[in-house]
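DM from R.C. (forwarded with permission)

"hey, sorry to bug you on a friday — could you get me a structure for this? deadline for the figure draft is monday and I only need the backbone to look sensible"
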Amino acid sequence: MPSRRLVLLSASAALGAAAIGYPLLRPAFAGPKLDAPSAFQRVEAGEILLIDIRRPDEWDATGSPKGAQRLDMRRPDFVDALDALAKGDRSRPIALICARGVRSARMANLLTKAGFAQIFDVPEGMLGSSEGPGWIARGLPVVTN
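My reply, with the result:
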């Protein structure tokens, strides 16, 4: 039976490898990207529909970007619900934001395949990633409720 120390060292190494590898899980998105300040500027100007695709508990914990619509990406009718928010206009510019850009890239790929023509990813997300410090750290406005 392995010693407790060996088990703890192995677990620590596995967690460390997972933490290092997590950014590598970000799927490639060939479409356009926006940094958080640009996304906010375009939302404020009415040029883009910003969708916060995170879970409700994440919205509760941090709030959502000011001007964003909340739409949980896990909804079985996500594409139809987004289509309704876009008023049936699949050529409307839509930006997706999540916590750190992983889920938004995945959903951007899905929506592009579903026929949405102007999907933008906000890869730094709310909390920051290798793409930037994130909406919150940049001091951009959030709404709670």
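R.C.: lifesaver. The mean pLDDT is 89.
me: no worries. Residues 3 and 101 are 39 Å apart (CA to CA).
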